[in-house]
Amino acid sequence: MTDVTTARPAAARTTALPEVWSLRALDGPVPAGIAGQTVPAAVPGLVHVALLDAGLILDPYLDRNETTVTWIGQSAWEYATRFDYAPDGHDRHDLVFDGLDTFAEVVLNGRSLGRTRNQHRTYRFSVDDALRDGENELVVTFASPVAEADRASLEIGYRPHTYFHPFNAIRKAACNFGWDWGLDAASSGIWKPARLEAWSGARLAATRPVVSVDGSDGVVAVHVDIERADDADYSVSISLADGSEARIELAAGASTGVAELRVADVALWWPRGFGEQPLYDLAVSLERDGDVLAERTHRIGFRTIDVQLDRDEEGTSFRFVVNGEPVWIRGANWIPDDAFVTRVTRERLSHRLDQAEFANMNLLRIWGGGYYESDDFYDLCDERGILVWQDFLFACASYAEEEPLWSEVEAEARDNITRIMPHPSLALWNGNNENVWGYEEWGWAKRLQGRTWGLGYYLDLLPRLVAELDPSRSYTPASPWSGDADIFANDPEHGSVHLWEHWNRVDYPTYRDVHARFVAEFGWQGPATWSTITRAISDSPLTPESPGMFHHQKAMDGNDKLTDGLVAHLPLPDDTEDWHWAMSLNQALAVTVGIEHMRSESPRCMGSVVWQLNDCWPVTSWAAVDGYGHAKPLLYALKHVYADRLLTIQPRGGGLAAIAVNDAPAGWTGPLLARRLSFDGTVLAEALLATDIDARGARTFALPEAVATPADAASELIVVESEGVRGFWFFAEHRDSALARAELTTSARRVATGYEVTVEAGNLVRDLALLVDKVDPDAVVDDMLVTLLPGESVTFRVRSEEDADPERFCAPDVLRTSNQLVADWN
């Protein structure tokens, strides 16, 4: 070995391992046609993806093929590769795996480097005693995750959990074992990058920029940890692109240090809708005697974010405050975007965030049953001003606090807090999803019989780690969370709540009976888009209950709940395409009712995080974007109800009121016209109300009795409008109304970007939509769910590269209205 205390060390060097390895099954219920075969496997990658690419398994997204691949998770697997190495002058060499899923043993040239048991950690193995000049053989074997979860559950003792497998006994993404929207496809694999790192003397182990704002100055305290191989003196140089610089001197034996930089008149980072998202490049370099040994960069943003849970006369608030400005959260929950997460690219994430922005969202909550997201995800949110609520990965189960889980959780949390904390979009760390609520209300205490269930993580370990590693961030122990362990976790008057009784057992108009401070989960199911269903399911005939359709409905009694939630509002069609449209529309109507109510109670209520933005495979679910990335009508409903300016009519004080919600940066001063109309457009009563609403404000206008009281509830509505913003109130449900067959005059033409479709209404037309995926699965329309009064028209713009007959967009199976569902039934 070189005497690194006297020689000048060279800069660290990173060598990527081969991108394609060989994969074979070691044991388990492996089909005869696959046993003994070796196939190429991309790294990063997963076993399922490699077998699918090799043509050895059926696509589990199609029909009921999921049932044909469950053996994969019950089997053990081997990844193997060879790589060349020549002595490079460095005295330390580490194999680094950013992610191994999950129970792995790493063997280099026949020497075991170690075993892993946590998907969510980075692993670093010293290989100096195993690495050899020339060709090296690297083998990573994976035990069956299904068997290991069962074994761990026996070892640590039963803990209550949802669904079929004891996912809570191990540190692997819970939804990989199946969920009420996800397939059971427990996989294995080298799911993140792997590399060989060579270094001498010392290396940068961690850099953590803790950002704050002091008056008009931006302040960043950069915490640096190094790993040493000697006792030499080192220095760390830190700089921002604006020219600010600082140094940390690490004398012999010292391995940590902090330096502070200040930026005068700093440009603040804001969430979208509140300002710009300036990002500053922060460079950190490790040096010795003027030589740079290692470098690391971060993009940081200067802002303050507090999540405030304060007791007041109405209970406990739950509000996000950015740079001193309260932000009404218009958000959605985020689940893994593919059941096989290694297939999610930066381009795909960018498209999904395009859809979130299209729907006027300003926050995504990364749900605790999936993964800590990729660096690409957080980078894109930084650039776009989308706030991120990050759950720690505990969901819908009780978790043992004994070893080996406690140490695994601590190591996992340290890795991911350190990795994610530089991102300005990160707004909140949250301890778990529904576990405190579950303990309180789902009967866990009786089944646990005094065993630990995770509270020590949520109230002790995780907040301590956040305070140590990311002290400028807010932390909540759970979602839902009341703000106090002595108050029921899901109390609407306190903190955040999850509202699921409405979907599960009641109905969506009852959202208006809940006066929450912040709604972190609620939602309504709807089918995937028609093109996705017909691509994924080959049933003939295709019905809501045909085998493939039923298999792609994972919620308990899901189809019954869809029907129960529909029939009070819309007729239940027998035709499958009509059924599909009715259920898609009802999903959009339900969520609209909920969010309009929540926004109408601003600032008492300060947020809505709908379940959910995306799907991980083609399935009937609560998502606004289906598993093939196509927008459902719900996404357009969210675009409308999450718009900066909203007019809504709500019951108030025994009558009706118009509520104007202005979440725009400028005041709203135009007059508000309220009219009661008959369905034929006749004005029956009207009132002109003066509006003067501050930026980020709201105002309630009691409607005069003449406007608010119908003579014939079945054939009348209220319209309120101001400065191009409209709100509607129908006195009767769709099915009980006098809605007639739509009288439409249509025209369509080809344009440079696709098509333009103009629709003029001869009578009242409700919920006008273009289901453009029926013409071109990749087509996107700019709006949907438009209600037209008699004589009004709208032009839809369709982006498409398909060479189609423009009139196809005007066909009755594509150009949809709720009139179609109601008129024929009446």
From TrEMBL:
EC supergroup of this enzyme: hydrolase
Positions of the Glycoside hydrolase family 2 immunoglobulin-like beta-sandwich domain: 209-303
Residue ranges of domain Beta-mannosidase-like galactose-binding in the record: 38-192
EC number: 3.2.1.25
Ranges of residues in domain Glycoside hydrolase family 2 catalytic: 319-474
UniProt KW keywords: Glycosidase, Hydrolase, Signal
Reactions this protein catalyses: Hydrolysis of terminal, non-reducing beta-D-mannose residues in beta-D-mannosides
GO MF entry, a single one: hydrolase activity
Domain of life: Bacteria
Protein family (similarity comment): Belongs to the glycosyl hydrolase 2 family.
Protein's name in the database: beta-mannosidase
